[in-house]
Amino acid sequence: HTFFSNMKPSFQDIKLAANGGIPVQTFLQSCKAVVSIFDKLSSTAFAPVKMDISGNIRKINEKYKTNPSAFSTLQAIVLYEKSVGQSQLSNSATQALLWLKRALHFIKEFLGELVSGEQDLTKAATKAYERSLKPYHGWVVRGVFSLAAKAAPYREEFLKHLAASRMDQENPDFETLIIQDMDECSSALEVLISILSDFYISEDLDSQEQV
Ligand code: 6S8
């Protein structure tokens, strides 16, 4: 077992509505499960990232709780905020989901690099960053990222932290198994990210603004 096969629920468990609607609760619970990866990696360097992602989960959940029956899907929340002119507010669920989607995109690309066999985690993170978050970051945050990426551990060390137990860690097939799990997680993420990206573009809610 690995961190990924232990995720309850995992992104693979999300059952889309017929119209592609993403159920809010399972989605947010899967995001919470993925955030716990930062506790495994312990490093305090991840504290701001963890705060940002958890903050976005909380913002979406708070909006959801104001009307659970109307807000069963992420898209329903975003369309509601658009209809009442709240989409552009910095504390809106719309902005929270936009940034949460970008963070998930980074994670998806990073896992994809490991699955493709990239041995150097600094390179894996840098390539993932270029394809996901970098366009939305100004030079200050880009600098912070590049420092963090340089502190990345060795691949083997990183994978070891993601074993569910010492026994799993010592399983000779552990690397094959964790790569399989990462591949599944990354494919499930890809579906969700692509639905959300298309949705933001079609509703004209995507933004090129940098922080
Ligand atoms: C905008 C923005 N959010 C926020 O300003 C920035 C927060 C911190 C960014 C730190 C950048 C450094 C990243 C280091 C990562 C290191 C990785 C790799 C190292 C190998 C938004 O905030 C709010 O969210 C929104 O609510 C709203 O208020 O309208 C809006 C204003 O502002 C971001 O840029 C989101 C940042 C998400 C980063 C996700 C990174 C995930 C990292 C790792 C996960 C996978 C494990 C990798 C392990 C690597 C091995 C060590």
Question: What does this protein look like?
Answer:
The chain has 211 residues and is mainly alpha-helical. It has a single domain (11-201), classed as Glycolipid transfer protein (Glycolipid transfer protein, GLTP). The protein has helices at 24-35, 37-40, 47-65, 74-83, 93-115, 121-131, 139-150, 155-161, 166-170, 174-202. Helix 3 (47-65) packs across helix 5 (93-115), helix 5 (93-115) crosses helix 6 and helix 5 (93-115) runs antiparallel to helix 10. The longest helix is centred in the C-terminal third of the chain and has 29 residues, at 174-202. The relative contact order is 0.15. The mean pLDDT is 96. Ligand 6S8 binds at residues 37, 41, 48-49, 52, 55-56, 90, 95-96, 99, 103, 106-107, 110, 121, 125, 133, 141, 144-145, 148-149, 152-153, 158, 211.
What's the story with the biggest beta sheet?
none
CATH level 1 class label: Mainly Alpha
Count of helical regions: 10
What is Rg? 17 Å
Relative helix content = 55-70%
N to C succession of SSEs: HHHHHHHHHH
Integer average pLDDT: 96
- Number of DSSP strand runs: 0
CATH architecture type: Orthogonal Bundle
Count of the separate structural domains: 1
- Which regions have little confidence, pLDDT < 50, spanning 5+ residues? none
